[in-house]
Every structure is written in structure tokens, then in C-alpha cells.
Write a structure and sequence with these properties.
Elements: H1 4-11, H2 37-46, E1 50-54, H3 58-66, E2 71-74, H4 78-81, H5 93-106, E3 111-115, H6 125-137, E4 143-145, H7 153-161, E5 166-171, H8 177-180, H9 191-205, E6 209-213, H10 217-226, E7 231-234, E8 242-245, H11 247-250, H12 268-285
Parallel strand pairs: 1-2, 1-8, 2-3, 3-4, 4-5, 5-6, 6-7, 7-8
Helix pairs in contact: 3-5, 6-7, 7-9, 9-10
This protein binds 5,10-methenyl-6,7,8-trihydrofolic acid, 3-methyl-2-oxobutanoic acid and magnesium ion (MG).
Length: 296
């Protein structure tokens, strides 16, 4: 994938996303323009894989936007990564909204998707609409994501009808951890048929993309080939149209064991720990602040 910086040097403009070299310009988002859901479908048609990352605050949202990440997810993983809960179940709409607003306020091109928290959409299409409308009005999200397959097609249909783009999420759905019997791979063996039926129902209901979490690579490849809309994999192998990771996992900020699907691209925990240690040593030794940090 061409980076923003390379594009910008040629065009003197903020670069578009998903601009593979030699691709027909007509199918690309205009330079500096907001990524829209149809751009993601066009990238699928061209066979261009695209990245998605989570974001929960202004600095990281701006960095990822400038780095050319076309889609940012304000995930309910904020429960873990921001709020320190033990799972994603406890996080509320009230806790999500300020994060969604911070991210949308900070990006100029990325499409921002807001996760609907557990308990805020399952009861009915009306409940889903109420929550999604808050994400759009108060959070200024561009789209929402909800977990579940065909049983939640009515929710997806109601939001789509109201003009709210919806991303689905099937396979391992963390909000159903207790119903699924823990963090386990879904769609093994015959389970692939159920996965395909769920994916097709979401597409039929109007979803613009669907996350596949912790499913066998072969199953994800089959689902991807059956759908017109893009699949976004996390622990779903290389056959998906897009890939997503929680940014703190990808950047090595979280301590402790990571799921198997995580690849670490940096070791921010060590970098920050060393910076904090150096600051502490300077303060204790009297070498900070120096003259250049002080006023006369
Ligand atoms: N930091 C973080 N990263 C995530 O990917 C993430 C969150 N938080 N919070 C919400 C959900 C929960 N997710 C998770 C969390 C843990 C595993 C996990 O422990 N997986 C193990 C077990 C797999 C198995 O037993 O088959 C693994 O090794 O992958 C998987 C998904 C994905 N999401
Ligand atoms: C891991 C992604 C897909 C997610 O749903 C989240 O971050 O909440
Ligand atoms: Mg989530």
C-alpha cells in the first residue's frame, strides 16, 4: 500500500487512501477527502487490502490518520485499553461517547466507526437506533459497529434505513464471551456454514463491511469470497479484505500476554518505561529542570 507521505510529495495535497500504484484514479477517493464506505467496496473489487486500527484519543487518532489508516475504530476494547475493566462488557455509551468525539474531532480523512457497547442495541432495532443516533449526533461518528449475526439483521436494517452505515462483527464476539464459553475460535468444521449465513444476512441487511474475529483462515477466505462487502479480519488469516488490530497490542503498549493474532510493531511499553525512569532520575538528581526549561 502506498503511504500518505509518498503520495503527498507527488500531489502537494493530502493523499488519498488505498492508492495502489498503477490503479485507475477514478476509483480512488479524491485527495484529502473523507474515506467513504464505497471506497472500501472499491478496494475489495481491486483486491487491495486495507488496514484498520482502533483509536481512543486525539494524538493517536491524528497519527494514524496522517499515516494513511483509512478506517479507525473506537472499539469497546476501550473497556480494557482505556478504562481498565477486565472485559469489554462493563463499558457504557456514556464512557464511549467522549472517546468517539475526541477521535472524530482529530481526523480529517479516516472513516471513524464507533462500537456499540454491550446492552445498548441487542434489545430491539429501536434501542439500536437510539444508541447509534447518539454515536452519530454526540460522537460525530461516521458509522457504527455491532456484534452478532442474522439475529441482529433487523438492527442493521433499521440503522441502514436511517442512513447510518453499519459494520458487522461475527466469529468470536467478545460481548458474548459468557455465552460462547470463553475466548475461542469460532466457525471450525461445519461452523463455516453458519458463519457464511450470518455474513450474508448482514450484507443483505445493508452492512458495509463485517469483522471476522478468531475464525480459521480457510473459513474466513470462504466468507470473503461469498461477500460483495469487505471482510475485516482479526485472527482470521490473510484471506480477508482488510485487517484490524487494537493499537496498543500492535504497538506493544499493553503489558502481559497478547492473543496469538497480535503482531507487535513496536515496544512502546519499554520506551515509555525508560522515559519515565529517566525523568524520575533527573528530578531526583536535580538535573531537571535545567536553565533552558526555566523562566527568568
Ligand atoms: N487489548 C485488546 N485487544 C483485543 O484484541 C481485544 C480487547 N483488548 N478487548 C476486546 C476484545 C477481546 N479480544 C480478545 C481478547 C483475548 C483473546 C485471547 O486471549 N485469545 C487467546 C485464546 C484463543 C483460544 O483459546 O483459542 C489467543 O491465544 O489468541 C482473544 C480476543 C479481542 N479484543
Ligand atoms: C478488536 C476490534 C474488532 C473491536 O471490536 C474492538 O476493538 O472493540
Ligand atoms: Mg469491539
Amino acid at each position: 500500500m502506498t503511504t500518505v507521505r509518498e503520495d503527498a510529495s507527488q500531489s502537494e495535497q493530502p493523499a488519498p487512501y488505498g492508492t495502489g500504484a498503477g490503479q485507475p484514479p477514478a476509483a480512488q477517493p479524491k485527495p484529502g477527502r473523507r474515506v467513504r464506505v464505497h471506497h472500501l467496496r472499491e478496494m475489495k473489487e481491486r483486491g487491495e487490502a486495507w488496514p484498520m486500527l482502533t483509536a481512543y484519543d486525539t494524538y493517536t487518532a491524528k497519527i494514524f490518520d496522517d499515516a494513511g489508516i483509512p478506517v479507525l475504530l473506537v472499539g469497546d476494547s476501550a473497556a480494557n485499553t482505556v478504562y481498565g475493566y477486565e472485559s469489554s462488557l462493563p463499558v457504557s455509551v456514556e464512557e464511549m461517547l467522549p472517546l468517539v468525539r475526541a477521535v472524530t474531532r482529530s481526523v480529517s480523512r479516516a472513516l471513524v466507526v464507533a462500537d456499540l457497547p454491550f446492552g445498548s442495541y441487542q434489545a430491539s432495532p429501536e434501542q439500536a437506533f437510539g444508541t447509534a443516533a447518539r454515536m452519530m449526533k454526540e460522537g460525530r461518528a461516521h458509522a457504527v459497529k455491532l456484534e452478532g449475526g442474522r439475529r441482529f439483521a433487523p438492527q442493521v436494517e433499521a440503522l441502514t434505513a436511517a442512513g447510518i452505515p453499519v459494520m458487522g462483527h461475527i466469529g468470536f464476539t467478545p460481548q458474548s464471551e459468557h455465552g460462547l464459553g470463553g475466548y475461542r475460535v469460532q466457525g471450525r468444521g461445519d461452523g463455516v456454514e453458519a458463519l457464511i449465513a450470518d455474513a450474508l444476512a448482514l450484507q443483505e441487511a445493508g452492512a458495509f463491511a463485517v469483522v471476522l474475529e478468531m475464525v480459521p483462515a480457510e473459513a474466513a477466505k470462504r466468507v470473503t469470497s461469498e461477500l460483495r462487502i469487505p471482510t475485516v479480519g482479526i485472527g482470521a488469516g490473510p484471506g480477508c479484505d482488510a485487517q484490524v488490530l487494537v493499537w496498543q497490542d500492535m504497538a506493544g503498549l499493553n503489558q502481559g500476554r497478547s492473543p496469538r493474532f497480535v503482531k507487535r510493531y513496536a515496544d512502546l511499553a519499554s520506551v515509555l518505561s525508560e522515559a519515565a525512569g529517566a525523568f524520575a532520575a533527573d528530578v531526583r538528581g536535580g538535573s531537571f529542570p535545567a536553565e533552558e526549561h526555566s523562566f527568568r
